[in-house]
Design a protein that fits this description.
TIM Barrel, 13 helices, 24 strands, 26% strand, globular
């Protein structure tokens, strides 16, 4: 190392016009030594934490990679040279219930909520959203509806999206959100117009084949009318949680036939570029069980952009790897999950909460682990269900014949109390934000190994070259060693926390 006296001597010689005799062989060797020592330090790492102790996306002191000289501790090893699936984005769902709840706030308060959800610098930076086609259980601004209630109007002359243009409508909601960020939209449908079904009795909620052309026209009209009103629908899913008892009973084999023989040709004929998705299964295992009936037809697969599943099994993540191995060319999206609890509904994991909504920050740990486990099993996009609800976990739509029960209390990302106007950003909001803000569309999951049982972690490389490592500590505070490119950092992880590490290869 240089001695301070020697450094001052060199500098004095320079500023006093000293001769070049100081540039001796010894000084050159010393200078090279300094350069090598500086070069041995790696990139600066920015650190953000949300924790049980009170941090909320809090920027911590930077750390810097140094040579890996500590071989005694178990470490998380990050290797961005090995990549897996491409990441499309993270987000939640536009429903009328959310717009109703947001409108209880004054304009300034409304803007703050939208900014906290869609701003990529100061908010969650959501980039991938869901918007149902017509009514679902949280289409709460009026009675159950479709865009064409006129029986046998197969040419869709009476097709109308008027309700979606209302103050609490979906288009109004989406366009307000667009002022604060950029995102794409995927759209599934619970029910087609009633007149297209054999009946709404259990087991008879199948579309009559003679209405397949009309249904294809219905989807095309929806996409075109939204576009005419400033909203692009990027992805279309024919049915939501189909081939079950509660919504449409349409089988996946028939969905495949609708796609290849009717919907895809109709969208192409109308000059639409909306991508078609396949699925919206209610659980992960249901996807590998039921999708092959339609997807094993190669003619169907060539029209399918991606596969979509829901998370209501709660923890059967490995079935997604099975799905990926069977159809490796088709990305997998997790497009709906939430808590739902009431006298007529029970979507709660084992040992989960029994009162909605849940305010405690600690609940976010459950969701954060779910996101990581989905990502480690080939999920390319992760979308939660209701983005915003009121203090009762509502309001909800009641239409029992369409599978929409009363007292359907659910958990949102953001809770707005319509009486007090208080806005609560849930633990889910913070854990999800550690992904949506820092892992941007076009990133790839990268190889991360090691660690300990109490840590759950996953890494990504963004298209701009930044590396992101998200680490959840499911236990007491402890040190975490991260090794990358033969360099290391050691960071204290707070108890029950999520920490984002972000850096860029200086080379």
């Amino acid at each position: 190392m240089y001695h301070l006296k020697y450094v001052l001597f060199l500098l004095t010689g320079f500023f006093l016009g000293g001769s070049t005799q100081f540039a001796t062989a010894q000084s050159k060797r010393d200078s090279n030594k300094i350069i090598k020592q500086v070069a041995s330090k790696g990139p600066i790492v920015t650190v953000y934490t949300s924790s049980q102790a009170g941090d909320r996306l809090t920027r911590k002191a930077n750390v810097q990679f140094t040579l890996n000289t500590d071989l005694s501790e178990s470490a998380i090893t990050v290797d961005e040279r090995t990549v897996f699936q491409r990441i499309e984005g993270f987000g939640a769902t536009f429903n009328e219930a959310g717009m109703i709840s947001i409108r209880y706030l004054n304009p300034k308060g409304q803007n703050y909520v939208f900014k906290s959800l869609f701003d990529s610098v100061q908010g969650a930076g959501f980039t991938l959203m869901k918007s149902p086609i017509a009514a679902c259980d949280f289409a709460s601004a009026g009675p159950w509806y479709t865009y064409n209630q006129t029986k046998d109007d197969t040419l869709m002359k009476h097709f109308s999206i008027e309700r979606d243009l209302a103050p609490n409508g979906l288009i109004t909601y989406i366009k307000k959100a667009k002022k604060f960020g950029n995102f794409e939209i995927e759209s599934p449908m619970d029910f087609a117009p009633d007149w297209m079904y054999y009946s709404l009795k259990a087991g008879e909620k199948h579309i009559k084949p003679e209405y397949y052309p009309a249904l294809a026209r219905y989807y095309s009209k929806y996409i075109q009318m939204y576009a005419a009103n400033g909203v692009t629908i990027n992805y279309l899913n024919l049915f939501n949680e189909s081939n079950n008892t509660w919504y449409s009973n349409v089988t996946y084999k028939e969905i495949g036939k609708m796609i290849k023989d009717y919907v895809a040709p109709k969208l192409e004929a109308d000059g639409l570029t909306t991508k078609i998705q396949f699925g919206e299964s209610s659980t992960r295992p249901e996807a590998i069980e039921k999708f092959p009936a339609g997807l094993d037809d190669a003619e169907v697969r060539k029209y399918v952009h991606s596969l979509t599943v829901h998370g209501y099994d709660w923890d059967k993540f490995s079935t997604l790897t099975e799905l990926h191995n069977r159809y490796p060319e088709l990305p997998i999206w997790q497009t709906e999950v939430c808590y739902a609890f009431g006298p007529n509904v029970n979507n709660i994991p084992p040992n989960g909460p029994t009162k909605m909504p849940v305010y405690v920050f600690e609940d976010g740990e459950f969701w954060g682990n779910m996101i990581i486990n989905d990502m480690k099993n080939w999920v390319s996009a992760w979308i939660y269900w209701n983005m915003v609800l009121d203090e009762n976990g509502g309001p909800w739509l009641i239409s029992t014949e369409h599978g929409d029960p009363d007292k359907n209390y659910q958990q949102p990302v953001v809770i707005i109390n319509k009486k007090t106007k208080k806005v609560t950003y849930t633990g889910l909001y913070y854990y999800l934000s550690h992904f949506s803000r820092f892992v941007r569309p076009g990133a790839y999951r990268i190889n991360c190994t090691g660690g300990s049982k109490k840590l759950n972690f996953v890494g990504f490389k963004n298209s701009n070259g930044t590396i992101v490592l998200n680490v959840i500590n499911n236990d007491v505070a402890s040190d975490c060693k991260i090794v990358w490119n033969n360099e290391m950092i050691i960071q204290k992880l707070q108890a029950h926390s999520i920490t984002t590490f972000k850096w860029k290869n200086s080379e």
